[in-house]
Amino acid sequence: MTQTQLPVELLTSIMTEVEPYHISTKFALASVCAYWRSVALNTCVLWSSFDLDSHAKRNLGALALVLYRGGDAPLDIKLTFGAYAHYRLPGPVPAAWADLEHAASALIQTISAPRVVARLQSLSVLYNSPGALHHLIAADLLFPNLRTLEVRRSPTAMSANLALMMRAPKLRKLLLHRVEPVSWTALLSPTLCELDIDHAAGSRHLGVLDVVAAQSPELRRLTFATYDTAPMDVVNSLHNAIQAAPYASVAGVEPSAKAWLPALDKVDFEIPTDVVSATLVLARIAQGQVVPSHISVLLKSGDVSSSMLPVLLHGLSPVTTISLSTPSTLVIRDSQDRTRTLRIWDEYQRLSLAPLWSTLARSHGLHKSVTKFEVSTAAWTGLAEALSQVPSMARDVALVVRPDGMLLARPALNTAGRSSSPGSWARAGADRSRRGSPMRNKRDELDLESFEMPDGPAAKVLVVSDLWRVTIDLRQVHNPSLQRRGVLRVLRWILPRASSSLDSRTEVCVSLPDTTTREARNAVLQELSTLFAARDEGFRVCKHCLDQL
């Protein structure tokens, strides 16, 4: 090796990291020079992961060479099949398309060879029209070493009939999206750890979960969806099938002696029907004394039944965080970072936070344990309304308000406190010594980064008291007009609701982009001075701003 050549280990690592699935890249790397070619040809793993397009005839010629150079290394193949079949017109098949279909059949025949099938460790398929794909995954082939199988139907596909008759006894991860395999449950194995089913035949009946539990007891992650966002005719027929499905049979099955999926770590149920269906599924989990780390449920409407909440909260202790990051997504988190997520399927509907929080607080005592609220600015007024209707918070709480992108797209508000009355916030005892300032009793710190002010009378419920410092971070805002407006909107909302103690003043710190002109900085400082001069509560601009602005 000359001084200009990279060590074999380093060059091998580079080759396997650069576009690892592009066949053309592999040949390009092997053509740089004799040294690179020698390293590439002796690195079997370089030739073991690749993308294949069934309608790219050049792939057929390259496939045999790639398989040969890969030796016996486990294969990771991503296959796109039948990408153009949907666009056929009535009449005779054009000669060019006939050639493409012939190439696709030859490609599938190559992959289906026993020696190749035995090497397959991961197979990902995106198809439009099944075609010759049946010979690979619909045939009774044994995949002895397959660990991951992913089959997805293209959103533009018109045909979805694809049976999975293959056998994979060591399968650990199965993902089926927008496909309708006739017998996908045959792929369930004792080794399966992750299952993701999205609109698959048989999954419209929730009783199939018992089959999953019986055949895959080591399952740790389960995503189960019964909806479809494909063409409207498919959606309509699916809705009819869902409404007619006998969900009651789930509740009628008595729990068996075995625990229901005892190792389950994550559950994601997407059931856009009614709350009752989701409650039945959650109840089955509770009956088996399972406490998954994460449960996500998709609901049809924003009205959450009180009967669902006990089973949804099953196993959480204690709940510490309530997050309403969007008007349609609620996340409940406990001290061990376990989560329960409620999402609304209809984007035009919103979760009714006020009655939901009222139930969580009054019936389940969450006001005694919650120490943090995370809401979007759109949900701010709903939270304020909710807090005004329930008992006072029993602990110091932190409030994080994140903007919805209406003004500025940056993380927004951090404040913390102890409730002295419904909707009021006091200190959280944040450590301020890291800024060289002494600890101050009953002081609060408020950090705002490009905060969009809430509107409406309900927002007035929130009162910030004993404020110590306000930080406004506008470093991502390069428009001088937005900078001034952003500062003013924050301060004009905060100042009337904040009171400073008699022995000190509240500092206001503003951070602007380094590219801000001197004129713009002076304008912001002038706005601050004018605003403070009109008030006598004891606010002042911090030393940082005096030096930098």
**Outline:** extended
Straight-line distance between termini? 57 Å
Structural class: alpha/beta
Low-confidence stretches: 84-90, 227-263, 271-276, 404-467, 497-503
Number of helices: 17
Main β-sheet, in a few words?
19 strands, mixed
Oligomer: single chain
| Alpha carbon gyration radius | 30 Å
Beta content comes to: 15-25%
Mean pLDDT: 66
Q: How many β strands by DSSP?
A: 21
Helix share, percent: 25-40%
Question: What does the model show?
Answer:
The protein has a 19-stranded mixed sheet. It has a two-stranded parallel ribbon with strand order 16-18. It is extended, with a radius of gyration of 30 Å. By secondary structure, it is of the alpha/beta class. It is built from 17 helices and 21 strands.
Which keywords apply here?
single chain, 549 residues, alpha/beta, two-stranded parallel ribbon, 30% helix
